[in-house]
Amino acid sequence: MRSNRSRSVATTASKSLRCTPCPMSHSWNRCLVVLGKRLEHARTAIARLHELGADTGAGHLHFSEVIAQLMLNRSEEALVAARNAYPRLAREGDHYRLLLPLALLNALHGRPDAAARVAGFDAAVQARSGENASIIAPLLHSRLEPLLAASLSVDERARFIAEGAALRDEEAFKLAFDDMA
Q1: pTM of the entire structure?
Q2: Residue-wise pLDDT tens digits, 28-86
Q3: DSSP secondary structure, the chain, as one string
């Protein structure tokens, strides 16, 4: 069980990583600077939780790091964060939230067939659970869809998405993490 102190560290860092729309007067570069600062805050919180022996509860912080790294176009760092997030989120039953970012990572790493399958599994999980799509899903889809369209025909995409929807959990996550450097 997490202590109140470790829970407080995790909550504070998680809130600081939430993206808020920038006023029109801010440039995208300014937003990236702010995002970078928030990312460092999350990393500090993760390190502090590790020091407290409570880093098993840092799954959502690692997930926030995945998203921040993807927004900063740092796919290698996002993959490391995803690998750190997965076992922690799996303990809480929240590992499905990694699927769409993992699909994007697969596409960015030149694995469009795996990306489409993982995205298909993500869509199937959403349909089964009835859970609302994440607030970041449109951002991830806006980056994923053009990559898939450029690499796969419409028929290939449909076939891979259908294959992904039929996967079991273990198969989907094995596919999502396998063969990515």
Answers
A1: 0.77
A2: 566 666 777 777 777 777 777 677 776 667 788 889 889 989 988 999 999 999 999 99
A3: ---HHHHHHHHHHHHHH---PPPTTS-HHHHHHHHHHHHHHHHHHHHHHHHTT-GGG-HHHHHHHHHHHHHTT-HHHHHHHHHHHHHHHHHHT-GGGGHHHHHHHHHHTT-HHHHHHHHHHHHHHHHHH-PPPPTTHHHHHHHHHHHHHHHS-HHHHHHHHHHHHT--HHHHHHHHHTT--
